[in-house]
Amino acid sequence: MDTSYPREDEPPRKRGPPPAAPPPRDHLVWAIFNTLYMNFCCLGFVALAFAVKARDRKVSGDVEAARHFSSKARCYNALATAGSVVLPLLIVALVVTGVIHLSKLAQDSVGFFTYQLSGRDDEDH
């Protein structure tokens, strides 16, 4: 292959209007899953309401309002998901530490509540 001579490139393309921004996401499926999971403070239901509003505004052509409601739906979905993950982990951690503390307390108190019998009664004589 001979590359010693200059090659002609394609002619420059004409510039047109910039491509339109993609429509905003409505996060409806995420909100439905969060609603069905029944998370803390019904945040999934609030996210579902904003996701439906975002989809309605997107269908009607109001892109700015759709972006606004989509942003709110995403925030509530994130809060609902975080709450659904963090709260059970926190409860499990509290139960485990409580069980550990109670088992140590029970082991320490066994010696206090048991009556030890011995052959000598030095205290009575």
TrEMBL record:
Which InterPro entries does the record cross-reference, listed alphabetically?
CD225/Dispanin_fam, IFITM_antiviral_protein
Entry's transmembrane regions: 28-54, 75-100
Record-level GO cellular component terms:
plasma membrane
**Which UniProt keywords are present, listed alphabetically?**
Membrane, Transmembrane, Transmembrane helix
**Subcellular localization, per the record?**
Membrane
Q: Which family does it belong to?
A: Belongs to the CD225/Dispanin family.
- Record organism: Pipra filicauda
**Gene encoding this chain?**
LOC113986374
The protein depicted here goes by the name Interferon-induced transmembrane protein 5-like
